[in-house]
Amino acid sequence: MTQISRQEVSPATYQETINKSIDDLDTELHDINRKIHESPELSYEEFKAHDNIVAFLRSQGFEVTPHAYGLETSFVCDYGTDDGPLVAFNVEYDALPGIGHACGHNLIATGSIAAFLGTVAAMKKYSLPGKARCLGTPAEEGGGGKLKLIDAGAYKGVAACFMTHPFSTLANVTYGTCMASAKFRATFTGKPAHAAAAPHEGINALDAAVLAYNGTSMLRQQIKPDQRIQGVMIEGGHRANIITPKSILDYNVRGSTLKETKELQERVVKCFEGAAIATRCTVEFLQTNMYADLRPSRSLCLAYSEVMKSVSPEDKWPVGEKEEPGAYSTDQGNVSQVVPSFHGLYAIPIKDNAANHTPGFTDAAATDEAHRLTLLTSKGMAGVAVKVLLEKAFAEEVDKGFKEWLSAQE
Predict the structure, then answer these.
(1) 381 and 344 together in one domain
(2) 380 and 343: one domain?
(3) pLDDT digits over 47-79, tens only?
(4) Which of 262, 291, 320 is the last residue before a domain boundary?
(5) Does residue 394 share a domain with residue 303?
(6) Quick one: 170 exposed, middle or buried, by C-beta within 10 A (0-12, 13-18, 19+)?
(7) Do 145 and 258 belong to one domain?
(8) Residue 1 resides in a domain
(9) Same domain, 251 and 393
(10) What is the pTM for the complete model shown?
(11) How many CB atoms lie within 10 A of CB 30?
(12) Closest CA to 293 of 204, 189, 405
């Protein structure tokens, strides 16, 4: 590709380069989208998706590190140098058990890959400083893959992190937040006994689980309207004539902030501890993950809204004074609390009001129209990423806004 001087190149010209590069790869991107959707894989088991994406990026001439940051199904692909900001694109590709890509991670992967390629096309043509990163982020659906990537240093030095998410919403959400989420497992241990001949010799762990469940159900009456307590029993005994010696509950507690969620979890834990005392069982807890609330960069959101006016003028990407609340959780929330981030939601056509995490949304995520809308968001992400690389004042504005938010949390 012929390099052109950055002098007197208009923002529209950069965007034209981005748009064309993504359009030119539409067939290949659609193929990646289809492969991921047709072979759904659960958290940390996304081996086909990992291998297909790595192979595709290598076919485009990139050096890719597979199995990156100590995770078998993560990868990282960097382009550029250390003479400027680092922009990153999160590639999600795990599915849900039983219903496949009912959250559209095939589209998320496609959009982030396309945005990375569009950004690199502009970097190559106009000799832009800095670096672009395409990062494989497995296990969003409860596995906390991004938490492990944060700990491994995958986001160290990132000036801006991007991803978009398809949603069963009637309108696009540019500047939005989501709920924090604490997932944990409680195991009650009792003592087995013959339920007919010697029930008095047993300690019933099923009773403890039922009592704990009922306790949290009553607790729901005294929590805030935007808080959530959700639980399921995954083990409750095997035979009716045996006093149940072991029961297991999985719980998910949500609140508007991480602090609030932790406080609510403490109240839920008290219900479990009380149930253990009442039934003479012991109870042990295992924290499976802790997803933070999403805190997007307002500057990145405003810039994205402006870019999308040219990329997709028929759609609206408003940015309000405050973040629009969302009743979902994501480990991108944790990323947004360590680096400036953008996490836009975009509406895709659905039938019969099918929501995310339903079979109907799985079908919607496979349509050509969903793919088309995804590539529009990728052009917007790339446009903002190039702005971060190119405009020092904008990059400083993004950094300043993030640091001010961090200071407000202290």
Answers:
(1) yes
(2) yes
(3) 999 999 999 999 999 999 999 999 999 999 999
(4) 291
(5) yes
(6) exposed
(7) no
(8) no
(9) no
(10) 0.93
(11) 16
(12) 405
The CATH number linked to 111 is 3.40.630.10
Q: What are phi and psi of 185, to 5 degrees?
A: -120, 135
Please tell me whether residue 205 adopts helix, strand or coil conformation.
Answer: helix
Flag whether 286 is in a domain.
yes
Distance in angstroms between the alpha carbons of the first and the last residue of the chain:
48
* Residue where a domain stops, chosen among 267, 291, 315: 291
Q: Which residues are within 8 A (CB) of 94 and not within 5 positions of it... i.e. 6 or more apart?
A: 41, 42, 43, 44, 45, 46, 49, 105, 138, 139, 140, 141, 143, 145
Residue 357 and residue 373 share a domain? yes
C-alpha angle 104/361/306, rounded to 5°? 55
Both tokens of 23, joined, read: 């359009």
Q: Which residues lie below 8 Å from residue 16, measured CB to CB, with a gap of 6+? A: none
Q: Which residue has the tokens 């078998």?
A: 72
- 35-59 burial, b at 16+ Cβ within 10 Å, e below that, comes to bbbebbbbbbbbebbbebbbebbee
Paired tokens of 100: 């496949």
- Indicate the length of the chain as a whole number: 410
Which distant-in-sequence residues (6+ apart) come within 8 Å of 81 by Cβ? 129, 130, 131
List the domain range (segments joined by +) for residue 256.
180-291
- Residues of the chain with pLDDT below 70 are 1-8
Per-residue 3-state assignment (H helix, E strand, C coil) for 84-119: CCEEEEEECCCCECCCECCCCHHHHHHHHHHHHHHH
Q: What is 208-251 written as a DSSP string? A: HHHHHHHHHHHHGGGS-TT-EEEEEEEE--S-TTB---EEEEEE
Q: Tokens 């002098």 correspond to what residue?
A: 7
Q: Could you give the CA distance from residue 186 to residue 212 in angstroms, rounded to a whole number? A: 10
Return the structure tokens found at 390.
């190119």
CA–CA–CA angle 216, 222, 224 (5° rounding):
105
Q: What is the pLDDT of residues 111-141, one digit of tens each?
A: 999 999 999 999 999 999 999 999 999 999 9
Query: How many domains in the chain?
Result: 2
Query: Token digits for 400?
Result: 């300043």
